[in-house]
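We emphasize that the prediction below concerns an isolated chain of 345 residues; any contacts that depend on oligomerization or on bound cofactors are therefore not represented. The input was used exactly as deposited, without trimming of termini.
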Amino acid sequence: VLADKHGNALWLNERECSIQRRNQKVVEEAPSTFLDPETRRAMGEQAVALAKAVKYSSAGTVEFLVDSNKNFYFLEMNTRLQVEHPVTECITGLDLVQEMIRVAKGYPLRHKQADIPINGWAVECRVYAEDPYKSFGLPSIGKLSQYQEPLHVPSVRVDSGIQQGSDISIYYDPMISKLITYGSNRSEALKRMEEALDNYVIRGVAHNISLLREVIVHPRFVQGDISTKFLPEVYPDGFKGHKLTDLERRQLLATAASLYVAEQLRSQRFLGTARIPIAKSNRSSWELSVHLGDGIYPVAVSKDGLSFSVEVDGMKLNVTSEWNLASPLLSVTIDGTQRTIQVIS
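Result of the prediction step, given as a token string:
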């Protein structure tokens, strides 16, 4: 809600915050997939009535619990912005911090309730320095040896207070950043979030990006079938990480083998000139064994120009990329499908 010192108050639509672990929010979005316009209006009007009853002025957050029949119950009011306020800013176009400052200065609100839109969809993931394989996230400490935010991805916002070289200590909340993506609809916002998570580079501490990415692509989440019990219901034995499909396993093996061969070829050159040959310089095919998980897989690689033809399990995959081995992120095209690969050395 947003209220001034002149008796005016607005409700700024809802935020869906059901994806939680240990009663702490992990993924938020606006609007909610569950509410209908009538429930939204009733909830908003009650929130405004509360703000006016206590003569509240500033931005604030009224929290409700909603049951499966769309009955809602007042939980509490936070007399401040909350961590997920950027998703409200995305769909309404309001700068909530600016509005808070104007209200504190004594200015009346500049908008009427009819002016407040729901324009598009926004999703926020809380990126934490924590191990998601332990109780869905126990804090991790250390120095950020490498840190690169995915700001090159369209319609991405990152609110953070750290940089490469920063220390994550035991004395503060282990949140690294708030990662927000926006789209004209939910599907677009989630697709951009998937891309943003894939392009986020964090080294030096454990982090929860693997869990966040699994949540936003899970069929139940994509369908909007969510509740505060989502994580324990979907992962009753705890989060174990992503389980590779056969195609993903082949693609990963092909990429790893191609990257290895590209590095070997690069190491044979010095300032653009071939080194003293220590191996056959005209070699164009390799027989490799790639260790993945608990298995070792035979992989055959042949080079043709800037691309590689890789045979895995009797299937041939074409791998193309500009191998910038100094970067932890590689954009790889495998049989026409583009993927972002993070290289950990």
